[in-house]
Specification:
Length: 217
């Protein structure tokens, strides 16, 4: 099994742990996070099953991943919008919630396009990653000025933010390179980088579910 193939088991483990500790954040802005994790894991396992049963047949799955990554970004922008308390920061994230779907629509219709044979949408993936990094930076800046910094290890949003921050810090330079050198998508280096970054991210999520208490908002 390739490193790419192992990622779905990381996703499944994170989804299981999220379900196990759901009561901790069931009333917070993160209450829908478990559905996102299960949705991602389900798509990965379904696509793996399709490839297994139709071995030798070229299965186009970029269509699903292009939609999924766009939905993930919008979801996280909403979570941070409702988590942030600083009015100025909320306005910035609200701007992202307007600008990013517009950029995705433009990309879907006229640039990389959303079709069954579409390439991976590196443009909107990179844009979303940069905007999310800015959003996470605003979140960190805010909690540094609140009492939450005193118990950050028990704060689920902190662990999720750390996981996302480390993942996108590592993937953005590579995705920028893909925009100029598309052949990078087929390199062995991509699978190593992507697996390692996913391992770090989902480990942070799992640690957050296990260590966090009721301080979720």
């Amino acid at each position: 099994m390739s490193l790419f193939g192992l990622i779905k088991y990381l996703e499944l483990l994170a989804a299981l742990v999220a379900l196990l500790y759901y009561r901790k954040y069931a009333t917070s802005h993160l209450r829908h996070f478990v559905y996102l994790l299960w949705g991602v894991a389900a798509i990965e396992f379904v696509m793996a099953a399709v490839k297994h049963f139709y071995a030798g047949v070229v299965v186009q799955n970029n269509f699903l991943y292009n939609l999924l990554t766009s939905v993930q970004y919008v979801y996280f922008f909403f979570v941070y919008y409702y988590t942030l308390k600083t009015h100025r920061y909320k306005k910035i994230v609200a701007g992202f919630l307007v600008a990013f779907p517009i950029a995705v629509t433009i990309n879907f219709l006229w640039m990389q396009r959303l079709t069954l044979t579409a390439p991976f949408h590196s443009y909107t993936f990179t844009l979303g990653a940069i905007l999310l990094m800015v959003t996470i930076g605003l979140f960190f800046a805010e909690i540094l000025n609140t009492e939450k910094v005193l118990y950050f290890k028990r704060y689920l949003m902190f662990w999720i933010s750390i996981g996302l921050f480390l993942f996108y810090t590592g993937i953005i330079p590579f995705m920028v390179g893909v925009n100029f050198m598309p052949l990078l998508l087929s390199s062995d280096m991509l699978s190593i980088i992507f697996f390692t970054l996913n391992l770090v991210m989902y480990s942070c999520f799992i640690a957050g579910f296990a260590l966090a208490n009721t301080y979720t908002d």
